[in-house]
């Protein structure tokens, strides 16, 4: 055990290795994200990905499947990038930009779209998305709490 002082930067919120996030512009109110400081970019599970040209701009249409729900998503394509996985495999991925909500904070986030079926969590939160906002305690989880879901009024 170290007696070193806590060096967390002032103003940065502490996250655990697993957090709840919302992606409201994609219509996703609640999603588990693995926090990964070793990953430069963030990624989102996407099935049935289609790139459609609309009014001179490309749009990504895809499905995000969680354990409990399936979301039909659509978002303008920002870029395409080669991403190297932790296993060393390189893949060309579509990049979108959307809004991320975590611990009551909202900010724009870039997400690469990929099939994460073999992964336990549908989203990976990489260090670019956390930079200047958060510090990570890998021994904790869900420090940001669970976003409040807006309930539809009963008819």
Please characterize this protein's 3D structure:
- With 155 residues, the chain is mainly beta.
- The chain has one domain (13-136): Cathepsin D, subunit A, domain 1 (Beta Barrel), CATH 2.40.70.10.
- It has one helix at 127-130, and strands at residues 13-15, 18-23, 28-35, 42-45, 47-54, 57-65, 70-84, 90-102, 105-114, 123-125, 134-136.
- Strand 6 and strand 7 (70-84) form a beta hairpin.
What is the approximate shape? globular
Q: How large, in whole angstroms, is the Cα Rg?
A: 17 Å
CATH architectural type: Beta Barrel
**Which fold name corresponds to the CATH topology?**
Cathepsin D, subunit A, domain 1
| CATH level-4 homologous superfamily | Acid Proteases
Biggest pleated sheet: 9 strands, mixed
Order of helices and strands: EEEEEEEEEEHE
Derived from helix and strand composition plus strand pairing, the structural class reads mainly beta
- Fraction in helix: under 10%
Number of strands: 11
Strand order of the largest sheet: 2-3-10-4-9-8-7-6-5
Low-confidence stretches: 1-5
Q: Gap between N and C termini, in Å?
A: 57 Å
Number of domains: 1
> What is the overall number of helices?
1
Strand content: over 45%
Overall mean pLDDT stands at 87
What is the level 1 CATH name? Mainly Beta
